[in-house]
Amino acid sequence: MSQRLVYFNGDFVPEQEARISIFDCALMYGDMAFEMTRSFAQQPYRLREHLERLYASLRYAEIGCGLSIDQMEEATHQTLERNLPALDGLDFQIMHDVTRGALPLYDTLVREGIRPIVTINVFPLVRHLGGMAAKYEEGVHFVITPQQSVPARYLDPKAKTRSRLHYKVAELQAAHMEKGALALLTDEHGFITEGTGNNFFMVRQGELLTPKPRDILRGVSRGACLELAARLGLKAHETDIEPYDLRQADEAWFTSTTICMIPITRFNFQSVGSGKPGPVYRQLLDAWSAEVGLDIPGQARQYAELAKTWKP
Length: 312
Known about the structure:
Layout: E1 5-8, E2 11-14, H1 25-29, E3 32-40, E4 43-44, H2 47-61, H3 69-83, E5 92-99, E6 117-124, H4 126-130, H5 135-138, E7 140-144, H6 165-177, E8 182-186, E9 192-195, E10 199-204, E11 207-211, H7 220-231, E12 236-239, H8 243-247, E13 251-256, E14 260-267, E15 270-271, H9 279-292, H10 296-307
């Protein structure tokens, strides 16, 4: 099988050789912007929207990557073309990482110099999807963690950067509460914001509720879900949601790039609605599958079987 290649500042290098210095700002500060896009039938899904958010994050962080958004898109397609023979027909993530580069203090120790570094890699979604396959029917358990979201006035979560220690702390706290539980964060006023890398939705009396786009990452999959809801004639509201409201919900789910949407069937050790995926969730997931031309949970089940013997 062909070897996967990584776009690295205009060159293509083998995946295992794509390395940056320990003196890079990405390691020293978490000072970088990134995006993850996925493919369906090996075609990027909403790539331009992900790139638009990447460039908004770069502007926020004041990182000039040296490429226009059109050039970045072209470099992405070149990366995909070079990697398709190595992907064996599998769907994949597309990861864009842009770091500010090394600190000038260490300029003589860094072979790539101190300019920003742009990398683009692709990686099959076998483990991403296979590990979540059962959750499309079982759902997941979300718990409110002591760790809260960082207010936008301190570090704006709408910029997708690697400065995410608060996510990791929340994940650790959730795991201490129950093995396998996922973190649901709140803001300083106690309103639900987001998960650690995902967006939250709930249904009450047939209408969708999702947190205001304030102290959250405005997910591309979140936007896709809202668009699908509008096409189906479902009312959706961006509003303040308290944990109390989730306890009264008929159903709930989260959205994220790789998995699209997964039901939340338990919240803080209590069932959400019937404790099973609800009808609105199923309606939206079916519509999403139709839009991308494949059975989303079915693909995850296939990848779960493949993951038993697959090696990256």
